Amino acid sequence: MSSEFDVIVIGAGPGGYIAAIRAAQLGLRVACVDSWANARGGAAPGGTCTNVGCIPSKALLQSSEHYEEAGHAFAAHGITVSGLQVDVATMQQRRAKIVQQNNEGILYLFKKNKVTFFHGLGRLAGGNGDAGWQVAVQPREGEAQTLTARQVIVATGSVPRSLPGLDFDEKRVLSNTGALEIDGVPRTLGVIGAGVIGLELGSVWRRLGAQVTLLEAMPDFLAAADAQVAKEALKQFTRQGLAIHLGAKITATAVTKKGVRVEWTDAKGAAQVLEVERLIVSVGRKPNTDGLGAEAVGLAVDQRGFIEVDADCRTNLPGIWAVGDVVRGPMLAHKAEEEGVAVAERIAGQKPHVDFNTVPWVIYTAPEIAWVGQTEQQLAASGRAFKTGSFPFAANGRARAIGDTTGFVKMLADAQTDEILGVHVIGPMASELVAEAAVAMEFRASSEDIARICHAHPTLSEAMKEAALGVAGRTLNI
Ligand code: FAD
Ligand code: NAI
Question: Taking the model in full, what pTM does it have?
Fold first, then answer.
């Protein structure tokens, strides 16, 4: 097997594997090195996203939503369910199978695109921009092998952040990895951090029957979301039974025989104790450069551990690029992918552009939350004059037919030019609806553009059109 390539990609998460495929499509000789191993020690490309992130979490969200609907929503349709039970083992087997299918799919794509895959830890072992870079690949067993290339793309991703003094054991103290693999419904589940992982995985286990308590340090709920959306979300999640405490300060933690004990003070400063069978710690993730050899070759890493890059993902070393969670910006799979594609195209001499303002955000709870562009509070802080239009799903025929009328679509547009500046959705299929808004914003559309486009009836997407009509104060169905 050749050890000389045009491009070596380190990491086969969404940033790395997509970069490798795109570079190969452009005629470059590409190697991709990834260390992730499945339970049998085999290659499991796809990174955090495929193995312990986006894909398995959505599998469990779907299963648990079916269970909740069968228990609570079917009756309204005249469907009676008796003896409803959940078999967590089957649910988990389904999750594992979906992950495996995705791992195999990526290996197939590598073959199809003639990307040479190496299963092992990749380390920057020397070289320079003129002669090329060496990457040592250490497989789980056996001898290391050295690859060379003029261009290296680092896509080594991120790992969960733990709380000081409380290491993950993945039995009682769970990162996202353990939280996705719980083998039976815990009676009580604590979650530190009511961010994206806390809300998604907290929802999974609540639907299945756990009593879930979330402790969030910030005084505001979902501070990154539009405040009106966050308010509605807090109302809905609380109504569903998630106990969410904002402004919580963790003062002590201990693993006990029965589970985990968390001492904390609430927003009023009163001391509280939470005793739970299992505890998910989801307080953010940190960039991963373990074993990469960054220091040895002089690759610049900032104080927080992110590889330093410019707007085009160039590092301080010629020919070395970095993309995805290991660099600045949102830790999202699709952001990593866009950067991976753009870097592969830059290496091939093209001039692509990634617009971070149109990267959509989605939280896959029920109701789903999705947005693109700026929030009302960001626009207000920037002093930009804007108009608002919104439309509730309660007035949308399809939402009524589906039986899910929670939430609304909210559109923000420039007061003078009418350019769409942000779109915020909370409600059914928000994750899919937001795509229309992202397309519109990429084309710098006005709210009137959306308002004048024919949307099929009856669809949830009509709520988007109505929100756009609302910007001009002329909704038709409310
Ligand atoms: P990663 O996916 O972390 O991949 C990095 C890969 O590099 C890994 O396979 C790692 O083993 C490998 N690696 C690291 N160092 C080396 C080395 N030295 N040599 C060889 N290989 C190495 N994002 C979304 O957009 N949508 C979601 O729904 C979503 N859900 C999520 C749910 C959870 C529970 C979590 C934890 C994350 C979720 N994310 C989601 C975030 C998403 O998973 C990340 O943003 C994405 O995986 C980042 O991709 P990446 O390629 O940068 O890194
Ligand atoms: P997060 O940043 O979304 O949420 C972490 C939360 O923990 C924040 O609200 C923060 O204020 C809180 N926190 C921090 N320290 C705390 C402490 N000591 N005590 C109490 N609360 C504390 O991070 P999370 O949920 O860990 O997810 C990591 C990243 O993974 C996300 O930022 C996101 O980029 C990605 N992700 C994306 C998903 C999606 O796109 N649907 C799903 C899951 C994860």
Answer: 0.98
